[in-house]
């Protein structure tokens, strides 16, 4: 409850309620003076106990208010709150001679919000969506609550839900029928394949939706690798990049906004940029998986796409987690070749790499991690998912 002390002035006194009316709503209570001062009569106006009700005015003109102040009848404001007491036993010490105290900008929620450098909202998220040729959404065992979405129905419905909470960027990952897979992954650039069809469908319904695509051969490869595998197990770099260029162009032609090479082949960003530009897709961005580390965290993704490698591992092209500075080498190559966005994957275990690239590159940094639960926790999403 606020107490406002006001002096009595000509034409204003307690007997006439200073222009106020007695009220049972407890907006104001006018009482006789309780504080005595020479030549001054005081009364108390109690502000509304209901915070959303404005304080009623006294009905005085500006001239009357100014005259009261000039006459020495200065209104009394509420007293300064007393300084909070320290617990018993707290040592008494002189203040440290600090010119700067960064905690000053963190002392209240309002100040923290005022000085916040980074705002995380649903608009910052890129939503990974797994799609398949079926009519129904099928659960993914390794990711409880997540589904392979039927591209004609479930995908459209899920995108609609995402847009309702402010998520307007998605990235598509396809589960391709085994019968369409091959050693060279030719299905990756089929103009009427699963991903191009899904892109065209979504762009028809949501023209402003930002669609990212995955550029890699592993969902289309009978070997489960991101590139063409030679008979001795070697992943062929330049031949793979040739296929990736055709894949990226087919995705851009369908309406993709951003193509995302995740294969970690050398030189693929420059080759993709050249191929896209040659076909008139200068406006299509490239989000490069600049630092994609060999990781067991990819297991659930591979199960979702049924793209586990049949033999060997991916360490000859995905990065060694023990190497920190190698990320700089990859970033500089991708920048020089025309990448628009640099991505680190996995995200949460490599926050140091994200920071490294953030400090060393002017390009936008990105990471891939689950975020559906974040939206749930903030009340931004209606159903439980991760």
General description of the model:
It is a single chain. The chain is of the alpha/beta class and 386 residues long. The protein has two domains: 78 residues, no CATH class; 255 residues, TIM Barrel, CATH 3.20.20.70. Helices cover 26% and strands 15% of the residues. The protein has ten helices and 13 strands. A nine-stranded mixed beta sheet has the order 4-5-3-6-7-10-11-12-13. Strands 1-2 form a two-stranded antiparallel sheet. Strands 8-9 form a two-stranded antiparallel sheet. α4 runs parallel beside α5 and α5 crosses α6. The longest helix is centred in the middle third of the chain and has 18 residues. 32% of the residues are buried. One of its GO terms (molecular function) is porphobilinogen synthase activity. It holds the Pfam family ALAD. Catalyzes an early step in the biosynthesis of tetrapyrroles. Binds two molecules of 5-aminolevulinate per subunit, each at a distinct site, and catalyzes their condensation to form porphobilinogen. Its main location: plastid. Homooctamer.
Backbone shape: elongated
The residue ranges in which pLDDT falls below 50 over 5 or more consecutive positions are: 1-38, 40-49, 382-386
Largest sheet: number of strands, sense, barrel closure: 9 strands, mixed
How are the strands ordered across the major sheet?
4-5-3-6-7-10-11-12-13
Query: From the helix content, strand content and strand pairing, which structural class follows?
Result: alpha/beta
Nearest-integer average pLDDT: 82
Approximate helicity band: 25-40%
Intertermini distance = 46 Å
- What's the architecture of the largest domain in CATH terms? Alpha-Beta Barrel
Rg on CA atoms, Å: 33 Å
The H/E string reads EEHHEEEHEHEEEHEHEHHEHEH
Number of individual domains: 2
What CATH calls the topology of the largest domain is TIM Barrel
Secondary structure tally: strands: 13
